[in-house]
Amino acid sequence: MSESIEKVKCLIIGSGPAGYTAAIYAARANMKPVLYQGMQPGGQLTTTNEVENFPGYPQGITGPEMMIELQKQAERFEADIRDGWITKVDFSGDVHKVWVNDVKEIHCDTVIISTGASAKYLGIDSEQKYLKLGGGVSACAVCDGFFYRNQEVVIVGAGDSACEEAHYLSKLCKKVTMLVRRDEFRASKIMADRVMNTENIEILFNTETDEVLGDGQVVTGVRVFNNKTNEKHEIPATGFFVAIGHKPNTDIFKEYLKLDETGYIINVPGTSKTNVEGVFVSGDAADHVYRQAVTAAGTGCMAALDAERYLAAKDSTFEISTSTYN
Ligand SMILES: Cc1cc2nc3c(=O)[nH]c(=O)nc-3n(C[C@H](O)[C@H](O)[C@H](O)COP(=O)(O)OP(=O)(O)OC[C@H]3O[C@@H](n4cnc5c(N)ncnc54)[C@H](O)[C@@H]3O)c2cc1C
């Protein structure tokens, strides 16, 4: 083995709530975890101002602050948190190989994948401007809908998730306008029927976003156009929700791991195990249903416990740490 190859017991890929929680558990179980943060240290929550639904913060907390706290908690137990990006993996043998920034090779007894998912946006300038300002653009109705209670919002999307999110918003908001690009939904009939039968949801078919309007700080409306007639009109709204899907960050694993048709890693139900022994998955990389920080953290815990049990079964000198359960 070349000297430049590092050997680690537990490698964690990703620094969102799943990765840091896995690091806390793995470090306390004496697995000496090494965690690579990737291009977005702290993960998706670093793009949001207010997190009000993570237990333990009665006054709420900003996403970036919460992620710094999780990082500090993992470091308190001496998890080795590093800058760097895993660019390649080889899970074909007993030892799992990963490469950092295409250069550094690491051999791992266990790997915990916590690479999350990225919400898709339309990509228009005004959307990105108010997204960055935290001024009313969101890709998560369950996370942010509460901030628009009794207000008017617009949601873009036509699939099952978009229908579910529109329905969720309809229970909080005065009015929800749903923009559907084609002349029909992509969603299942039952989901489409549900939004069509909800009184305070107005559906505009053949309609796309021209611009998100605002006062420079917050969203005040949306200018839309009909893609058949090119007619434009403005809709007053304080919130603009984008529900056009997520892309799980799993491309580098597809040669070795079973993924579903949209790229989410398939885990053994009720566990964090993948189809490769010693490789575990947590958080949004395997979850297209819940997509919440608290569920990501929960599955990060599961992955560390599963990895610990795997190591104990493989190596009789590695004892399951009682501190994990304290
Ligand atoms: C705008 C917004 C607001 C939200 N608000 C809330 C909220 O209020 N409450 C809530 O519960 N949830 C909220 N969510 C959802 C929540 O952020 C996610 O469910 C959660 O962050 C998922 O955690 P994760 O650890 O699985 O992955 P992520 O947070 O997506 O983190 C993934 C990590 O993996 C790293 N990574 C990816 N690929 C690689 C690689 N190849 N090598 C190394 N590292 C890699 C990234 O750098 C990142 O650190 C929000 C999401 C968004 C987009």
Q: Helices and strands: which structural class?
A: alpha/beta
Quick one: overall form?
Answer: elongated
Oligomerization status of the protein chains: single chain
Calculate the terminal CA-CA distance, rounded to whole Å. Answer: 38 Å
- SS element count, helices: 7
| Helix share bin | 10-25%
The largest β sheet comes out as:
7 strands, mixed
Give the beta-strand count: 17
Mean pLDDT: 94
Q: Report the radius of gyration as a whole number of Å.
A: 22 Å
Percent strand equals 25-35%
Ligand kinds: flavin-adenine dinucleotide
The SSE string, one letter per element, is: EHEHEEEEEHEHEHEHEEEEEEEH
Contiguous uncertain segments of 5+ residues = none
GO molecular function: thioredoxin-disulfide reductase (NADPH) activity
Cofactor: FAD
EC number: 1.8.1.9
Protein name: Thioredoxin reductase
Description of the molecule:
The chain is 25% helix and 26% strand. With 326 residues, it is of the alpha/beta class. The strands form four sheets. Strands 1, 2, 3, 4, 5, 6 and 17 form a seven-stranded mixed β-sheet that branches. Helix 1 packs parallel to helix 2, helix 1 (17-28) runs parallel beside helix 7 (293-314) and helix 5 runs parallel beside helix 6 (189-196). The relative contact order is 0.18. The model has no long low-confidence stretch (mean pLDDT 94). It binds flavin-adenine dinucleotide. Flavin-adenine dinucleotide (FAD) binds next to helix 1, strand 7 and helix 7. The site of flavin-adenine dinucleotide (FAD) has 42 residues, from helix 1, strand 7 and helix 7.
